[in-house]
Fold this protein.
Amino acid sequence: FCYTRYLGYQTLGEEYVNIVQVDSTKKRVPSFLRRAIFVSLHTVVPYCLEKGLLHLEHELQIEPDESRTSQSSPALGLSSQTLMRNWIQKQVGELTEQQKKRVLQIVYVLKQCIPLLHRLHLAVFYISGTFYHLSKRITGITYLHFGGLQGEDQSIRSSYKFLGIISLFHLLLTIGVQMYSFKQKQRARQEWKLHRNLAHQKNTTKEKTTGRHSHCTLCLEERRHTTATPCGHLFCWECITEWCNTRTECPLCREKFHPQKLIYLRHYQL
C-alpha cells in the first residue's frame, strides 16, 4: 500500500474499476508531498493515536508507587512504543491528582468520539460519493473515473445515498442514546450525593455518642454507607463503585473481584 501510494501507481482494485487518484483540482495527479501526508495520516497517525491513548490511560490509572517502580526500571531497547511510553510517563508525572482525573475523562471522551467520527465520515461518503477515507478528505485526494456508462454510475450512487441517510440516522440515534444515558447517570449521581449527605447528617450524632470513627481509605473521610468487598475490606459505597468503573480489584490487597460481589452493609455502626 505505501509503496504504490508513494510512487503514485494504481492498485489492482483501481485498475479493475478504471479509477485514478487526482488532487482537489481533478486535473493533476497528487504530488509526492500530498501522497506522503496521506500515507502518514492513513497509517502512522491512527497507530500512534491508539497506542498513545492506551499508554496514557494506563499511566493515569496506576498508583504513584507503581509508576515510580516502572520509571526506576526502564525497558531495554529504543523502540517507538518505548519512547512514547517514557514520554507519557514523564508528562503524567508532572500532573496533580485533580489534573489526572480531568485528563482521564478527556481520554475517555476521545475513545468514545473517534469511532463516532469515523461513522459520521462514512455516512457522508455514502451521501456525497467522495473521500472514502478521512485521510483523503484532509489531503483533498479523490478519484476520477474514466470509461463506463454514466447512467449505471448514477443509479448506483442513488442507492448509496439512501444507505448514507440510514447510517446518519443510526448515528444520531446512537448519540442520542449515549447522551440520555449520560444524563441519567449524572442525575443518579446527584441524587445519591444528596441522599448521602442527608444520611451522613443523621449518623454524625450516633458516631459522636459512640465515640468510634471509621475512615474510608479511598476518600480519607468518615466512611458513609459502608460496603464490603469479597476480601473483607470496607469502603464508602460511592468510592468503591467509582473505583470499580476502572479497576476490578480491591484497592488494598489487589484481589480481583466482580463489582456484582460488593456487599452493602445496612445499619453498620463501626
In short: The first helix runs from residue 2 to 7. The two ends are 66 Å apart (CA to CA). Residues 72-77, 207-212 have pLDDT under 50 and may be disordered.
